[in-house]
Design goal:
Elements (H helix, E strand, L loop, with lengths): L2 E8 L3 H12 L4 E5 L12 E3 L3 H6 L10 E9 L5 E12 L2 H14 L3 E4 L2 E7 L2 E6 L4 E9 L6 H5 L11 E9 L6 E7 L2 E7 L4 E9 H4 L5 H7 L5 H8 L2 E2 L5 E4 L9 E2 L2 E3 L14 H20 L6 H31 L1 H13 L2 H10 L10
Parallel strand pairs: 1-2, 1-9, 2-6, 4-11, 9-17
Antiparallel strand pairs: 3-5, 4-5, 7-8, 8-9, 10-13, 10-14, 10-15, 11-12, 12-13, 16-17
Helix pairs in contact: 1-3, 1-8, 8-9
Length: about 375
């Protein structure tokens, strides 16, 4: 027998779990499918802007129990040895996906949200209803489906999404380390063909995560050789790696990371988090954006459920408009910033300009970050 629910969320990461918790708080019936067991590590910069804290407080979520690392400064370094440091306007926290995703999952289960483990292979929409099939043969029926399954998945191919057919040049690598790196700094370090984020998370653990050009990467025998030959050209990165001891048995890697434009709504599926759009990691705000998108979709589904939004077409139009208004310019700016930093000459010009006019760095940060997220009074 199919499992029937009002709202089905595909994906149990930050966006999916936050949306589930918000919908449950609003009294809506919600079911979530996640393909992996908790807890698990993910390739991620693991920095969250403090803009999410008012919203999480409203949801009754207390991240302080996870003892996150407090971050209030941003450092940027170039291959040529230049370095800039500034205070972060809102500040943020360092918290691993291993910790926060598992925390949200535990809270969701205690609040009675139905969470199933399975790998979705097909989503069909007919007669104003979704039928969702998983690899293990389970079938779900829902009035609404939220896509929160991350950067890319087999489902994207099934849905024939435009970005999936374009080969991406990017590879991401992440690992945790023991190190004496400063607790209050998130460090962004440019290198030829990519950039690397470094910051502490909970338990005094250092997270190092970098995005690299795959064509450059594959010229080297392995990750260690690539890091020594390419990343170490940035002397700050060489120092960070030489002073750190890896905790993981081996780094985590993902390839085919696409920053191409995605659809916030496709085949009536409401996309949130990285499933709707991925900001370049150097902007450091992907986790907050995922959480914010969950808030938007939950509030609009509540309005639809209560007749404030009259029909599905109006719901999809309103979600698309709100998503673009909040995130489209951030994604565009992120792409521009990434292209500038990939060009050595442009990077040097940018660094010299910021050194002459330090306030420009804070303006740049504001272009990729939002204001504190406050839940709407519905």
């Amino acid at each position: 027998m199919p499992i029937e629910t009002e709202i089905l969320i595909i994906g149990g990461g930050l966006a999916g779990l936050t949306a589930a918790l918000h919908l449950k708080k609003l009294g809506l019936e919600v079911t979530l499918i996640e393909k992996q067991n908790y807890p698990h590590h993910k390739v991620c910069g693991e920095y969250i802007s403090n803009e999410i804290l008012p919203y999480y407080n409203w949801l009754g979520l207390d991240l302080s129990v996870l003892k996150p690392n407090q971050i209030n400064q941003l450092q940027f370094t170039s291959v040529d040895g230049n370095s800039i440091k500034t205070n972060l306007p809102l500040g943020g926290i360092g918290l691993s996906r291993y910790a926060i995703d598992n925390y949200l999952y535990q809270v969701a289960t205690t609040r009675g949200i139905n969470i199933f483990h399975g790998n979705v292979q097909n989503v069909a929409y007919t007669n104003n209803q979704f039928v969702v099939d998983t690899v293990d043969g389970s079938v779900y029926k829902a009035q609404h489906v939220i896509g929160a399954y991350g950067k890319r998945a087999l489902l994207d191919s099934k849905l024939d999404r435009k970005f999936i057919g374009k080969k991406s040049p990017y590879l991401a690598v992440k690992a945790h380390y023991k190190s004496n790196f400063a607790n209050n700094i998130v460090s962004l370090n440019n290198f030829k063909g990519g950039y690397c984020g470094v910051s502490k998370v909970e338990n005094d653990i250092l997270n190092i995560c970098y995005l690299a050009d795959y064509e450059s990467f594959k010229k080297h025998k392995n990750i260690d050789t690539f890091q020594k030959n390419v990343l170490y050209q940035n002397k700050n990165l060489e120092r960070i790696f030489s002073e750190a001891e890896m905790i993981f048995e081996a780094p985590l890697t993902i390839s085919q990371i696409s920053f191409e434009k995605k659809e916030p709504v496709l085949n009536h599926i409401l996309m949130i988090g990285d499933t709707a759009g991925l900001i370049h990691p150097l902007c450091g705000n992907g986790m907050a954006m995922a959480i914010h998108s969950a808030k938007i979709v939950a509030e609009l589904l509540y309005k639809y459920h209560n007749g404030i939004i009259p029909d599905r077409q109006a719901l999809e139009k309103e979600y698309t408009q709100q998503w673009k208004a909040l995130f489209a310019q951030r994604l565009k700016f992120g792409k521009i910033l990434a292209s500038v930093l990939k060009n050595n000459m442009m990077e040097n010009i940018a660094m010299k300009t910021v050194n002459l006019f330090p306030a420009m760095l804070n303006k740049t940060i504001k272009y990729t970050h939002g204001k504190p997220i406050i839940a709407s009074e519905i």
